[in-house]
Design a protein that fits this description.
This protein is mostly helical. The protein contains seven helices and no strands.
Length: 246
């Protein structure tokens, strides 16, 4: 059985379709890594372009909003129609890059150097967890998966509640504050986001073992990118909270 992933874009049912396991032109870990690298390059290029526009004085708010909306719609489509991954994932990377570029530039304006720190920390966590997973220091057991999935779902519900309450001018205590407890909450969220990488590694590895179709390499790369984007944003929030106390 393919392991569960806390990442909603990587779900076990994706591999339970009778038309996928022909054994020809199958998904590989190497191929998924290549697709993930391509997706990352596209995302970074899009983010850098938006970043440059921001510091050239352009209004990038429409790009940020548009990128977020388009990225969300494309994520839903890819999640339900994995066969569309090779065509939609690069577009998703462009849209998500527009959003990240605008958000990162705004953070950078307030806290100089924060985006580089967040990027390096995100990559450091990625490679550390990849090494821990490959050396079996961390194993994606069923209990581990269920725990991460539950924590991820809880965080998602809290964020959704925060958005809804925000429409009525109500803020959830400590969630967005720079108090020690607020910083502690961000640390916990960063840890949960990071642990989702382990589930993603496991999911991709098991998908390759099952001989999933070649297009699933794009799907796996997409799911991995979703987790990395979330981890990066949480790193930004955490570092901003810490910096605001100085």
């Amino acid at each position: 059985m393919i392991g569960r992933s806390g990442n909603p874009t990587l779900k076990e049912s994706t591999f339970n379709r009778p038309d996928q396991f022909s054994g020809l032109n199958a998904m590989t870990i190497g191929g998924t890594v290549n697709k993930a690298f391509i997706t990352l390059i596209i995302l970074v290029g899009s983010a850098f372009s938006t970043w440059m526009l921001y510091f050239d004085g352009s209004n990038v708010v429409p790009m940020a909003i548009g990128g977020a909306i388009i990225g969300f719609i494309l994520a839903l489509i890819v999640s339900f129609v994995p066969k569309a991954s090779p065509y939609l994932v690069p577009v998703y990377a462009i849209a998500e890059g527009m959003f990240l570029g605008a958000i990162s530039a705004q953070y950078e304006t307030v806290y100089h150097g924060i985006t580089l720190q967040a990027s390096l920390l995100t990559m450091g966590v990625f490679f550390a967890l990849l090494l821990a997973y490959k050396t079996k220091l961390i194993k994606a057991t069923e209990n581990f998966k269920l725990g991460v999935i539950a924590a991820t779902g809880g965080i998602a519900l809290v964020y959704l509640l925060s958005i809804v309450l925000g429409w009525f001018g109500v803020q959830i205590p400590y969630l967005h504050e720079s108090t020690p407890l607020g910083i502690g909450i961000s640390v916990v969220i960063v840890i949960v986001a990071a642990l989702n990488l382990v589930l993603d590694f496991d999911f991709i590895e098991r998908g390759a073992e099952r001989g999933a179709p070649k297009y699933m390499e794009w799907y796996g790369a997409f799911g991995l990118m979703v987790t990395l984007v979330w981890l990066y944003l949480e790193m930004l929030r955490l570092l901003a909270k810490i910096a605001s106390r100085d």
